[in-house]
Specification:
Oligomer: homodimer
Strand order of the largest sheet of chain A: 1-2-6-3-7-17
Radius of gyration of chain A: 23 Å
CATH superfamily of the largest domain in chain A: Zn peptidases
Number of strands of chain A: 18
CATH architecture of the largest domain in chain A: 3-Layer(aba) Sandwich
Largest interface: A-B, 105 and 105 residues
Largest sheet of chain A: 6 strands, mixed
């Protein structure tokens, strides 16, 4: 391993320069106008996988964006890792808040700034470089490896479940490794054993056929923006409790043991507030900030649009209003059941003075692992050697729905091996990745292969 | 007068063709990028005023857009009309809902479609052509006339009050004539004797310094879109009543006599609902539709924006949310007092978890006339001759704040001599003006000058 680690240390500059090329491709899966870029990014990913020494590399077509597949299966008798990541990225608006262009990666104070740097190209690339290091130094890997990098994670992985179901035979493995999450804090590497689920909606309210003059017509017909506001206001109360009937029925309560564990983590509400620039924290009464982020569900308005939103004043009574609303779910909530409850509630809230349409966008199940298994412990040792610190165990507020699918369809446990940081603006302007964590992550990944490979 | 009326009838095609040129100038006062167009429109207006025979035509500079002034003061012993109109127009978004481009006027089924056709260039141009007809046929006008056409009506006429105050001496007149309103209905010409006032705000809510990942952070900080929705929801209840404390204190109640008059007007809620495409009407309980539009105040959300509003799903927890909110006022509400009450209420509603900023955009006083005066009766006769029907008397839900200023500063009563129609989309896509009303309006305006001029 020393040769591999040395190789990684001497190639830092090249890694950053290559990563910049990867980050330059605006593979925004949510926006149809970027479809060409998404495909170009899939092709770049495949070429890189071939370059680092993977075999059987191919784009597997789906009804949406292709999945990039590659493997290396010559470590006889050793276990097989299925590595999963995604090459698509989030949209970049509001663009004017970016300090440097989102697709021209720029290094400042040891961080690389670009859309996709943390989520997830940077973390995918870290594994490519770990593979490369083994191959360059030893001409082989210490473990069998299958790699799938998908292009629809940011739009709900809508074709991935079918891809996994259709390729059950060729995706056989002992453990799934995913690097698409953040460590607990700067200098506090972690292993993540739980994720929230998701269900996402668009609500459209129509009042009239066209926008009206708010003076001539105001007071005589419903205002769809006001109706929408009144509906949204009834979805969550001012104590942070979600008011969708039946919403909490299946919520698995936090155990006292888990709550005690989390209280030991190095955490400051004051620092968190300051970092986010929030005047005051807010959330469900009776739970700590970490509990609210990791172990409790939430309902959030993700977007809202109606009427005149430009500079100045326009006296319009809008014809339509739109909101995007999503819920994060915890074990044992099921996204389909919650979606049914939500849709029923929206229909109940909708007054007869308007037309209301609810569109189900996407969803994913929550996930929680037994963190005492062989592979989680191997990951712990790899992190410890790569970062020089024992990792802590924590959950994540975000969602990686595919983790539940791997468990259900392939019966394979997952290890969440993320090296992002909580303040790296994953879905916001000025997304960044700490380069020390990136380089340590390459070392840790290389060691992870060795650790898992040696468990024959 | 017969020669004048004949001249008007034989020039219909030319009028439409010239009006198209006027409507081609995108003089949107709300958008800074159209400032050049606004000035160009002022210049076009001035040139046209000179062409039709007005004298002393000039652009009077203000801190904002210029006021175009012109006069003809040679009708010795006759009264003086002060004609007021505006050459600026509303923004055009959403542009994709226009059937033909907003600044390429197009005639379909006897209506001319373009931004500004009804509000207010078409109605201003109608007077220019009435002046021209008198001048061409008789080389003189039957009345003294001062004309002021301003360029900031759609952004609250913010420099007009000062212009009027500064030019009291040169604006001396007996009556103000304004053509910037709609008649009661197609085939039901009307004289308008009351207008609602206005006060308009922007509310900005900030939760954090930047947009956040809704999974990682959701549940731990306030969501500014949700906070804004909850605040808006508390501004008006589901019975249509405005909940700003003190809001109704100065409202002049409708008299039974007026309510009885309005009940006689040809009106159908069913037809109104169908025309607007509203599933059901909505408004303050206990009042008819006309009462709610003309005689009762309202609070409307004019616009709303937060987070991700594009196609698809983005799991963002927005940093900021914005709403435009305005209130229409009735006698004897004062916009400044209402604005104070509203701001205090917003501050009361704002939770400590966010920063809330309220910006006062503009306002105007409500207005109501004694409709039995000489000039109103003269206007009634002019309408009757121009349109072949006795006009009805009604109020308007919109606001023309300058009417109150003319009354207060110059002590001059106003006559609202509008020929628009209620369904002409004044502030919406596909604004239009009925060309029969336009041509009849030219005749009626020419007769109005004669009727007022003969009152020596």
């Amino acid at each position: 391993m020393i040769k591999v680690i040395d190789f990684i240390h001497t190639n830092r500059d090249r890694y950053v320069s290559e990563l910049k090329d990867y980050l330059a491709i605006p593979s925004i899966s949510a926006l149809p106008e970027h479809q060409g870029d998404v495909r170009r990014c899939a092709e770049w990913t495949a070429e890189e996988m071939t370059r680092v020494g993977l075999e059987n590399v191919k784009l597997v077509e789906t009804p949406g964006n292709p999945v990039v597949y590659g493997d290396w299966l010559h470590a006889e008798g050793a276990p097989t890792i299925l590595f999963y990541g995604h090459y698509d990225v989030q949209p970049v608006d509001p663009l004017d808040l970016w300090e440097t262009p989102p697709f021209e990666a720029s290094v400042r104070d040891g961080e690389i700034y670009a859309r996709g740097s943390a989520d997830d190209k940077g973390q995918v690339f870290m594994h490519f470089k770990a593979i490369e290091a083994h191959m360059k130094q030893h001409g082989k890997l210490p473990v069998n490896l299958r790699v799938i990098i998908e292009g629809e994670e940011e739009v709900g992985s809508k074709n991935l479940d079918n891809f996994i179901k259709a390729n059950k035979d060729t995706l056989g493995a002992d453990v799934v490794v995913i690097s698409d999450s953040a460590m607990f804090d700067r200098g506090v590497p972690s292993i993540c054993y739980g994720l929230r689920g998701l269900t996402y909606f668009q609500i459209d309210v129509r009042g009239t056929n066209s926008d009206l003059h708010s003076g001539i017509f105001g007071g005589s017909v419903a205002n769809p923006a006001m109706v929408l506001a009144q509906m949204l206001a009834k979805m969550r109360d001012t104590s942070g409790r979600i008011r969708v009937p039946g919403f909490y029925d299946d919520v698995r309560e936090l155990t006292q043991a888990e709550r005690d564990e989390w209280k030991k983590l190095p955490w400051s509400d004051k620092r968190y507030m300051k970092e986010l620039g929030a005047p005051k924290l807010f959330g469900e009464t009776g739970f700590t900030t970490l509990e609210r982020r990791w172990g409790r569900p939430t309902l959030e308005v993700n977007g809202m649009l109606s009427g005149f939103t430009g500079e100045g004043a326009k006296t319009v009574l809008p014809a339509v209003a739109m909101a995007k609303v999503s819920m994060r779910l915890v074990p044992d909530q099921h996204p389909d059941k919650i979606a049914d409850l939500f849709e029923a509630y929206v229909k109940e809230l909708a007054p007869k003075t308007v037309e209301v349409k609810v569109t189900r966008m996407h969803g994913g199940k929550p996930w929680m692992a037994d963190f005492d298994n062989t592979y989680v412990r191997a990951a712990g040792r790899a992190i410890e050697q790569g970062f020089g610190k024992t990792p802590v165990f924590c959950r994540e507020g975000g969602s990686i729905p595919v983790v539940a699918t791997f468990q259900e369809e392939l019966g394979i446990p997952s290890v969440l091996f993320g090296v992002g940081l909580p303040d790296e603006n994953a879905h916001a302007p000025n997304e960044k990745l700490d380069l020390d964590n990136f380089h340590n992550g390459i070392v840790a990944s290389a060691i992870l292969y060795e650790e898992i490979g040696s468990r024959r």
